[in-house]
Amino acid sequence: MIVAGEQPARGEFVRRLNEFLAPHRKGTQAPRDLELPALMVDAWLALGRTVTDADVEDVTYFVLGECLRQGYPVATAGGAANGTDGSITFDSLMLFLAKTFKSLLAKSTSESIAVQDHTVLILDKYAHPFPWESTGSLAGKSVSRVFSLAMLTDLLAAQRKRVVHKESVYYCINPGGDLSATQDRFEEIVRANATWRGTAGSAPSQTQFLSHVSSSDIFLFIGHNGGEQLCPPKRILSHSYGPAVALLLGCSSGKLSAPGEFDPIGTPMYYAPHSLCVVGNLWDVTDRDIDRFTVAMLASWGLISCESALPTGDVAVPESSDTKDTAIAGQEVARNMAADVSFTQGRHVLPLKAGQGRRTDAVGGESRRIARTYASTSLPDAVDLSKAVAQARLVCKLRYLNGAAPVVYGIPVYLTH
User: Fold this and answer.
1) Nearest alpha-carbon partner for 348 in 386, 304, 383, 309
2) For residue 416, what pLDDT is reported?
3) Are 195 and 305 part of one and the same domain?
4) Domain assignment present for 351
5) Same domain for 165 and 17
6) CA-CA distance, 205 to 169, in Å (whole number)?
7) Which of 10, 75, 232, 266 is least surrounded by Cβ atoms within 10 Å, i.e. has the fewest?
8) Domain identity same for 93 and 140
9) How far apart (Å, rounded) are the C-alpha atoms in residues 266 and 391?
10) Residue 352 lies in a domain
11) Position 29 confidence tier, pLDDT thresholds 50, 70, 90
């Protein structure tokens, strides 16, 4: 498990360190400022209150090694060990780092600096079928999966070169023609976005599919499985380019199967070389619940607006309606979510008080109790896709059967408006 987060205190740490090193640069060939890897500094600062003397000692050894490599005078056991000649001693550097960590931690606490963390899971073939994202310690947090550490490194490098535009979407809804209710729920939503391209109720040819998928930033598939019937996955893998984000919302679209003793394989792996992020379901799901999840995820991420997700007419839902017996039509789902969950410009704000809003089929029963847990949570305006998936689980009526099925492969992705 790897936890990564961006620390706003990085610049302050580097500034203080170079102020400490400034007197030691006189009369040497050392550069103007010591250069340190940004990821290393972020990792040190992410230790927070858990930092120990052993951690500070490790950081001191690393910084001292960088000083020596970049031309700074470093005291050695055989030379000026006390640093009287202007060289840097281990003890003085360690004392400075310990004070700096303590000072920055106190400052960040007093100023309430929010750090958006993301958890990356690297699972073997025995652990990947389990929905770790819905366990108590990870529920509601931004979590994704990668297949290896090398894949994570490649994705982080590719992220700097790719921009995901919300206008560049290719959709394929109900290509088999047998999910008419699902098609009705999403057809108005996709048609409300004039720049989106795609098909609803029919399947494109393989040539059309590959052409549109490779030229779009986002691929939205709503149908059976992961869209393997549209194009053999191996053709997607061999294609030169693919979507930055693939949303595969059919049954078992994110499932990986292990052939004997070999590593598992599945549809997400065929998109992985070209995509920063792939969303899929670990097992089979029911259509109405996963449709609720999809609308909530797209709205929370900011891909669709609350207005485009709502029907034009008012839909009356009785205050005392029984969620077990009430059959809510597809377009009513978005309005019911809006009654209990507010989506505003990509921001997902849950009711401030337990029981506030109408009890509906979209958010009710066990899901409402989950919502109370995050009722006071204030989320940033920009929500990454992994966080949007975590938030959207709350609208599922079957919290674990359907809500825990969607998982994210890849890294956090933000939309560019």
Assistant:
1) 383
2) 78
3) yes
4) no
5) no
6) 18
7) 232
8) no
9) 25
10) no
11) low
Query: Is the separation of the CB atoms in 173 and 199 below 8 Å?
Result: yes
Beta strands in 213-292 (DSSP E): 218-222, 245-248, 277-281
Match 């998982």 to its residue by tokens. 407
Residues 42 and 166 reside in one and the same domain: no
Do 134 and 79 have their domain in common? no
Q: Do 399 and 405 touch, CB atoms closer than 8 A?
A: no
Q: Report the CATH number that the domain containing residue 220 is assigned in CATH.
A: 3.40.50.1460
Of the candidate ranges 111-125, 154-168, 327-341, the one whose mean pLDDT is the lowest: 327-341
User: Are residues 388 and 241 part of one domain?
Assistant: yes
Residues 42 and 162 placed together within one structural domain of the fold: no
**CA 231 – CA 207 distance, rounded (Å):** 9
Segments forming the whole domain that contains residue 235: 119-310+378-410
Q: Which residues pair with 4 in a beta bridge?
A: 118
Buried b (16+ CB within 10 A) or exposed e, 357-389: bebbbbbbeebbebbeebeeeebeeebbbbbbb
The C-alpha angle with vertex 288 and arms to 202 and 227, in degrees rounded to 5, equals 35
Cα 144 from Cα 254, distance rounded (Å):
12
Residue where a domain stops, chosen among 71, 87, 107: 107
Number of structural domains the chain divides into: 2
Q: Could you write out the three-class secondary structure of 315-340?
A: CCCCCCCCCCCCCCCHHHHHHHHHHH
Note whether residue 184 is domain-resident: yes
* Residue that finishes a domain, picked among 50, 75, 107: 107
How confident is the model over 158-183, as a mean pLDDT?
89
Greatest mean pLDDT range, 78-87, 202-211, 358-367, 404-413: 404-413
Asked if 362 contacts 328 with a C-beta cutoff of 8 angstroms, the reply is yes
Whether the predicted model's global pTM rises above the 0.70 cut = no
- Domain match, 58 and 161 both: no
Banded model confidence at residue 408, pLDDT cuts 50, 70, 90: very high
Burial grade of 135 (CB within 10 A; 0-12, 13-18, 19 or more): exposed
Of 81-85, 132-136, 209-213, 219-223, least confident by mean pLDDT is 81-85
The predicted-structure confidence for 104-153, as pLDDT tens digits, reads as follows 776 654 444 344 688 999 998 889 999 999 998 888 889 999 999 999 98
Task: Kindly state whether residue 254 falls inside one of the protein's structural domains.
Answer: yes
State the pLDDT at residue 26. 64
The DSSP line for 135-170 is: STTTTTS-EEEES-HHHHHHHHHHHTT---BTT-EE
